[in-house]
Write a structure and sequence with these properties.
By secondary structure, the chain is an alpha+beta fold.
C-alpha cells in the first residue's frame, strides 16, 4: 500500500524516475479543465514530450487549432504502471501557457475519482524517467502523503515542487552541484580528459577539452539522452583570459538546430552552400563557406545576400501569433533559403535549458590542463518565449559555420554547424531567475 511519501518516492524510483515533482492542484485542475502546468512554455523544459504539432481537428463543431505534443504518461499504483494513451500537452500561445489533457482517457487504472473533481488539497506527483516517460500519482488533501509533503519546504521549479528521490537525501540538487563545483575549483589545475562510457577517465588532447574535462570530474558520461547533465542541471564551461574579470573569450552557443524548411531542405544542405556560400577568404582551394552573423536587426549579409526574419511572433506582447511561423533566411528576391519552424526550435530548446550552470575556465599547455573559476552563474526557469524575445531584439543571432571542400582524395566533404549564439552578457535574458555564486566565499 502506498501510504507514505517515502513509499511513493521508492515506487517512483523502482519504475525508473530520476526526477520527481509535485504540483498542488487547484479546483480547475481536473479532467474537464485540464491540468495547468504554468504560464509561458517553461513546463516544456520539465515534461518530456513528443513532436509539437498543430491539431486542426474539430470536436463538437469547434475547431481546435491548438499546438499539442503527445506524452508517454503512466499512472502508478501497487500493481504497476498503467498507460494513459491519450495523454498530451496543449500549448496556448495566446496566453501563453501549457496544460495537460487526456490523462484519464483509455486507462482503466486512472484515478478518475480524484481527477474529475474540484476538491482543494489534492496533490499530483510526477516522476520523469530517462526514457522520457512520465509517472503519475495523485492524493487527496487528507492523505498522509499530502500531510508529509506539506510539512516540508521544497525548492520550486515554476509551478512544481522539486522533490528528492528519497527523503533520506533532503539536500537539493543545486546544493549538491555547487559542492562538486567547489571541489573541482579547489583542485586548481587538472589534466584535459574525457569520461568514457565505461566511466574511465582518459586523456584528451584536442583543444575543446574544457567541457569534457569538467564533465569527467562531475562523473557525466557521454550519452544519447536529451536530459540535462547533472541532477537536472545543464553544466557549461566557457573560456576566459583570467579569473579577475571573468571576461568570456567568445559568445555562448545556445543550441544547434538544423533548418526544417526552405531551399536547405527542398534542395540539400550541400546545394545550399554552393548557391549562397562564398569562396574561402583565406585562399583554401576548392572550399566554399557559409558563415556570418544573421539577426533580425541586420540587413542582408554582403557575402551571401541573405537576411534573417522572425515570422509569427509579436515582440510587443511577447506572444506567438502563428504556430506555423518561425525563423527564415530570405534571399533578395524573397525566396526562403532556410527556415526553422517554432515547433522544431522548441524541440531543441526545451530539454536542456530549464536549469544551467555556467563555469569559467582557464587553459594552459603543455601538457593541456584546465582550471575552473570560483564565480559560477546559475540560471533557472527559461522559456522559449524568452528566446524569441531576445532573438527579436537582436540579442540572439544565427552564426553558422558551414563548409564544402574536397579532401585529399578529391571527394567533396560537407561539414555543418548551424548554431544560435548569444553574448555572455545577454545570457541571463534567457532565464526568469539567475544568480552568481562565489565558490570561494
Amino acid at each position: 500500500m502506498i501510504d507514505s511519501l517515502t513509499r511513493l518516492l521508492e515506487l517512483m524510483t523502482q519504475h525508473g524516475a530520476y526526477r520527481t515533482y509535485a504540483k498542488r492542484l487547484s479546483p480547475n485542475d481536473n479532467s474537464k479543465n485540464q491540468v495547468y502546468l504554468g504560464g509561458g512554455f517553461s513546463a516544456l523544459n520539465i515534461i518530456p514530450h513528443g513532436e509539437i504539432y498543430v491539431d486542426t481537428t474539430s470536436r463538437g463543431g469547434s475547431k481546435q487549432d491548438r499546438p499539442k505534443a503527445a506524452v508517454r504518461f503512466f499512472w502508478i499504483d501497487e500493481n504497476g504502471k498503467h498507460l494513459a494513451p491519450a495523454a498530451n500537452l496543449i500549448l496556448y500561445p495566446d496566453y501563453p501557457e501549457v496544460r495537460m489533457s487526456g490523462f484519464l482517457l483509455g486507462c482503466q487504472a486512472a484515478p478518475n475519482g480524484l481527477m474529475t473533481i474540484r476538491d482543494e488539497g489534492r496533490i499530483l506527483f510526477l516522476g520523469v524517467t530517462r526514457e522520457g516517460e512520465i509517472l503519475g500519482f495523485v492524493t487527496d488533501g487528507a492523505s498522509p502523503i499530502s500531510n508529509q509533503l506539506n510539512a516540508y519546504a521544497w525548492p520550486t521549479l515554476g509551478v512544481f515542487l522539486e522533490l528528492p528521490l528519497s527523503l533520506g537525501e533532503p539536500t537539493e540538487p543545486k546544493a549538491i552541484l555547487l559542492a562538486h563545483l567547489r571541489r573541482i575549483h579547489d583542485l586548481k589545475w587538472i589534466a584535459s580528459q574525457k569520461l568514457t562510457r565505461t566511466g574511465a577517465k582518459v586523456p584528451y588532447a584536442a583543444r575543446n577539452g574544457g567541457g569534457y574535462s569538467l564533465e569527467a570530474e562531475l562523473g557525466i558520461q557521454p550519452n544519447g539522452h536529451a536530459e540535462p547533465d547533472f541532477m537536472g542541471w545543464e553544466v557549461k564551461q566557457y573560456g576566459v583570459r583570467d579569473f579577475t574579470k571573468f571576461a568570456p573569450k567568445s559568445a555562448v552557443t545556445l543550441f544547434t538546430p538544423e533548418p526544417t524548411g526552405g531551399f536547405y531542405r527542398t534542395g540539400s544542405a550541400e546545394r545550399f552552400v554552393e548557391r549562397f556560400g562564398y569562396v574561402d577568404k583565406s585562399g583554401k582551394p576548392g572550399r566554399i563557406n557559409f558563415g556570418g552573423i544573421y539577426s533580425c536587426l541586420k540587413a542582408a549579409h554582403a557575402d551571401t545576400g541573405l537576411r534573417m526574419t522572425l515570422n509569427g511572433f509579436d515582440a510587443g506582447t511577447g506572444k506567438i501569433t502563428d504556430m506555423n511561423g518561425g525563423l527564415a533566411l530570405i534571399s533578395t528576391d524573397g525566396e526562403e533559403a532556410a527556415t526553422w519552424s517554432f515547433s522544431g526550435l522548441m524541440a531543441h530548446w526545451n530539454r536542456k535549458h530549464a536549469q544551467a550552470a555556467y563555469v569559467p575556465s582557464l587553459f594552459r599547455t603543455p601538457p593541456p590542463e584546465y582550471s575552473y573559476g570560483s564565480q559560477v552563474l546559475l540560471c533557472e526557469q527559461t522559456d522559449f518565449i524568452l528566446f524569441l524575445e531576445a532573438f527579436a531584439a537582436g540579442k540572439v543571432y544565427y552564426d553558422p559555420a558551414l563548409k564544402l571542400e574536397k579532401n585529399a582524395s578529391g571527394k567533396q566533404v560537407f561539414k555543418k554547424r548551424s548554431q544560435f549564439r548569444v553574448q555572455h552578457s545577454n545570457l541571463t535574458q534567457m532565464y526568469h531567475r539567475h544568480e552568481i555564486i562565489n565558490l570561494a566565499a
